[in-house]
From TrEMBL:
Its EC number is 2.7.4.3. This is Adenylate kinase. The keyword Amino-acid biosynthesis does not apply. It comes from Terrimonas ginsenosidimutans. Pathway: Purine metabolism; AMP biosynthesis via salvage pathway; AMP from ADP: step 1/1. Consists of three domains, a large central CORE domain and two small peripheral domains, NMPbind and LID, which undergo movements during catalysis. The LID domain closes over the site of phosphoryl transfer upon ATP binding. Assembling and dissambling the active center during each catalytic cycle provides an effective means to prevent ATP hydrolysis. Residues 31-60 are annotated as: NMP. It comes from the Bacteria. The gene is adk. Its main location: cytoplasm. Catalyzes the reversible transfer of the terminal phosphate group between ATP and AMP. Plays an important role in cellular energy homeostasis and in adenine nucleotide metabolism. It is found in: Cytoplasm. The keyword Metal-binding does not apply. AMP binds at residues 32, 37, 58-60, 86-89, 93, 134, 146.
Length: 192
């Protein structure tokens, strides 16, 4: 299995680049944000619980998202690999993912970190709010809260993988196709 993490703050382009990467490399896209929004839409008990966190720009409890990822890995047991987007977001999630992959005799090949400055992130999310319909895009205060939570709770995840020299920084400020080329050049090197 060949597994990648696409890492970066809210609005850095993880969803945009994930769609292109899974098509090129035949990986399964696992976005905890997308999985949670599906639950929200269906108004499942998990979705109702998650909504209160998402609407405040807070993280959904670790056990909820780890459970979702564990089920998704089992459901796609014959996959050639996974692209994780928006997960792991805490050190506890990263440690849980390492264990889940170890059980499948696999691991993370690369963590691709999209670098984008905060003002550009907020601008992108304000623009996206016009069309996304996402409740957590509607308000700039919530967007800033998400950036804050990212810095405090999610950035340490990069340090976790840096210990194993798996983190590669890519300029996420460039145009979408240029960012994609930056990502694929690192992935192709790793595959070779
Ligand atoms: P999630 O859905 O994961 O959102 P996020 O990480 O906040 O990321 P976004 O989807 O906002 O941005 P993105 O990086 O995917 O950028 P995008 O490609 O859309 O999480 C939402 C919430 O769910 C969390 O706040 C939390 O509550 C909960 N949650 C999810 N996972 C969790 C977990 N593991 N643990 C706990 N809670 C969890 O791009 C943004 C915009 O910019 C788009 O309009 C796009 O068109 C544009 N754009 C993209 N690239 C470029 C470019 N190069 N140049 C110009 N514009 C660009």
């Amino acid at each position: 299995m060949f597994n990648l993490i696409l890492f970066g703050p809210p609005g850095s382009g993880k969803g945009t680049q994930s769609a292109k990467l899974v098509e090129k490399y035949g990986l399964i896209h696992l976005s905890t944000g997308d999985l949670l929004r599906k639950e929200l839409k269906l108004k499942t008990p998990l979705g109702v619980e998650a909504q209160q966190f998402i609407d405040k720009g807070q993280l959904v409890p670790d056990e909820v998202v780890i459970g979702m990822i564990s089920s998704a890995l089992d459901e796609n047991a014959s996959a050639r690999g996974f692209l994780f987007d928006g997960f792991p977001r805490t050190t506890a999630q990263a440690e849980a993912l390492d264990k889940l992959l170890e059980l499948k005799k696999s691991s993370i090949a690369l963590v691709l970190f999209l670098d984008v400055n905060e003002e550009e992130l907020i601008q992108r999310l304000i623009n996206r709010a016009k069309t996304s319909g996402r409740s957590d895009d509607a308000d700039e205060t919530i967007q800033r809260k998400r950036q804050d939570v990212y810095r405090k709770e999610t950035l340490p995840v990069a340090a976790h993988y840096d210990k194993f020299k798996k983190v590669i920084h890519v300029d996420g400020m460039a145009e979408i196709d240029v960012v994609f080329s930056g990502l694929t050049s690192h992935i192709d090197k790793k595959i070779a």
